[in-house]
Design brief:
Two copies of one chain form a homodimer. By secondary structure, the first copy, chain A, is of the alpha/beta class. Helix content of chain A is 42%, strand content 14%. The first copy, chain A, is built from twelve helices and twelve strands. Chain A has helices at 17-24, 28-36, 43-56, 62-69, 85-100, 114-126, 141-149, 173-187, 203-218, 235-247, 259-271, 305-320; strands at residues 74-79, 104-109, 132-135, 154-157, 168-170, 192-197, 228-231, 253-256, 281-283, 300-302, 328-329, 333-335. In chain A, strands 2-1-3-4-5-11 form a six-stranded parallel beta sheet, sandwiched between helices. A four-stranded parallel beta sheet of chain A has the order 7-6-8-9, sandwiched between helices. Chain A binds a DNA duplex (30 and 30 nucleotides) through helix 2 and helix 4.
DNA sequence: CGCCCTGATGTATGCGCTTACATAATCACC
DNA sequence: GGTGATTATGTAAGCGCATACATCAGGGCG
């Protein structure tokens, strides 16, 4: 036997459509049709093909298919991080909806770094992503140029952009924090602390901070500089920030950028002997599943991130199908709980009402 | 001008390597080399190529590349859900490490459904995944057949399999809950409640339950059937389960499958007037970042899931490079906090020590 | 000055699949 | 039973890229 006989001794080369075709006694065209347009092939033949495919262990290879069909059935999403329920739920919603259409989702994380996001976008386009979902709009212009040059459908999420420059699905972040702030104002608070994530490269957070400050300013209230803290968020960061804030001239309410921070604040209040909500009201955001069950339970607000994911998917699917993209403004779900109440003493509260 | 002139009026077809080649006055081979083996091409020429690529907006198309190169640089992971910090962190770790090697991660969720997992695995192989990361081993034999038939490297995570049937990276789940149980036994508890996720199709949870029951049994202790509850976990489930358990003949300690459940249990205890840890000790698992900051802070244990992700990546990279795969048993990080203490009254505690 | 070697580039084939088109087979109907 | 319509299948040409091999240009050296 010649040594170059094509006996698959060493590495049994992965099978290809032609192997299935041979096995089933048909042409590769029929194999392809059996999988992609089953009703264009005689049931008897189709079954023979399926059986042959099973026998030789064949799975169609997407690369070949993508090339021939000019269609990858790939969609990409770029998110700041997976380490947050917000984005994890969002991705889950996105993936579930896209999966229903046989589309595979490519996920990549940019850590809120615009240039990393641009690089990731390049990778995704190179991989053949047919559409992209982006969190916010804080990206280099070049990214959008890339998309429009190739007319790649995209959607901005976690942010509702009224201007309509891009289709978007998300919350009005400013409005959301206006709501939170007004809740506290209505309870009678006049002296505030604010602990937020870093607004750098994060327009959503910037909007939220803007919403708080503007609303307070409308009521003639300013936040003392040392009562306003931003940074890399975590419960510990909330704790540390709150300790600083409560140290001197403490406010009667602290608005937190999310529940993780707020839970740290609650711990700090406890450690410093502040009673919540008697001495201090605290609000979170995102409404973590545990926030309802901790003590004191946390006043918070959220939007349905899974829904946001599926709406984003819908928006991309619409565009891929040549339909008009719908932007959607999601509603805020506000949950008032034990961590907020009227301030115990009204201090210098001169509000004439 | 003839109407069929190749003027890109309507749809400016995405550019291909040949367009770049023409623009730069070289062949497609040189274009390819400029991108993949830059030092095999004269700097002057390479720059000309890069400039041309920029000009015509060309990105290499992965499908063509994959086909020609017989290499997709794609790796897949199948996880039960993204809606859990455990898996989100794991995926993040996995992706970070693979990304360093220029490998794109394909993520899909199976919801602990073995047949869904099999389907997802098929999709991933079809997409050209060169290796797979799987949570646990509770999959149809067919899935592993698929992998071994094509000799696709894989790794089992979130579970350490001593048997060495598959490379694995994870915790010894039984041992972990033995540790938790022994902690409570050492404190003097003799009457236990157990609230766990559903062990169906989830060997990790089954092992954990086994670890608890076996350890107790070694001490001659059995858990009352109505003090042992499993189900779809959430803080609310923990709350409901605990209300049931605390209703009659309450135990002095409740072991929970994770922190979310435990936080629900804490809420139930509060609602029923049980003081934690005086009247009731509670343990969680996974050590959620908030668990240290809530009141009472929660005794919990965890493993480093991001590390697990990067070790899993390493294991796959080793196999892809033809090196030996290393299984790794991760260490348990146990955190004793306020939610556990000696039981207030020793009840019927007859332990002679 | 010619030879050979090295390094840069080009030519052309094939990766695995889909699909337009060609062909063959079947059927209805007069 | 012949004709045209209809349906089932086959043939073959790419999809965009990488790369083995061929070619060509220099350069070193005798």
């Amino acid at each position: 036997m010649a040594p170059h006989d094509d006996l698959p001794i060493v590495s049994p080369r992965k099978s290809r459509a032609v192997d299935v075709a041979r096995e089933a006694g048909v042409s590769t065209a029929t194999v392809s049709r059996s999988f992609n347009e089953p009703d264009k092939v005689l049931p008897k033949v189709r079954e023979r093909v399926m059986e042959a495919a099973r026998k030789v262990g064949w799975l169609p290879h997407a690369a070949g298919s993508a090339l021939a069909r000019q269609r990858t059935l790939l969609v990409g999403t770029i998110i700041p991080t997976l380490r947050s329920g917000i984005f994890a739920n969002f991705v889950a919603g996105l993936q579930e909806r896209l999966g229903e259409e046989g589309i595979t989702l490519l996920v990549s994380v940019s850590g809120n770094d615009p240039s990393k996001a641009l690089a990731e976008a390049r990778v995704m386009l190179s991989r053949g992503a047919e559409a992209l979902s982006l969190v916010g709009q804080a990206y280099p212009e070049e990214l959008f140029d890339l998309l429009s040059a190739r007319s790649v459908p995209h959607v901005i999420t976690h942010e509702f952009c009224g201007d309509g420059k891009h289709p978007s699905v998300g919350l009005d972040n400013r409005e959301a924090f206006v709501t939170v702030t007004q809740h506290l104002l209505a309870l009678g608070h006049r002296k505030f602390g604010l602990i937020m994530p870093d607004p750098k490269n994060n327009n959503r957070v910037a909007e939220r901070i803007g919403g708080v400050l503007e609303t307070l300013s409308d009521h003639g209230i300013a936040i003392n500089a040392e009562h306003q803290i931003t940074g890399e968020w975590s419960p510990q960061m909330g704790y540390d920030a709150a300790v600083g804030i409560l140290n001197r001239m403490p406010p009667t309410a602290i608005i937190c950028g999310n529940d993780q921070i707020a839970i740290g604040v609650l711990a700090a209040a406890r450690a410093r002997g502040f009673h919540v909500p008697g001495d201090l009201s605290v609000t979170g955001f995102d409404d973590d599943p545990v926030s309802e069950h901790i003590f004191p339970s946390l006043t918070s607000a959220r939007t349905d991130n899974t829904l946001m994911g599926s709406l984003a998917a819908e928006c991309l699917l619409d565009q891929l199908a040549g339909r008009q993209a719908k932007s959607q403004k999601l509603t805020l779900l506000f949950a008032e709980r034990q961590s907020t109440s009227r301030p115990a003493k009204t201090d210098l509260n001169l509000d004439p009402q």
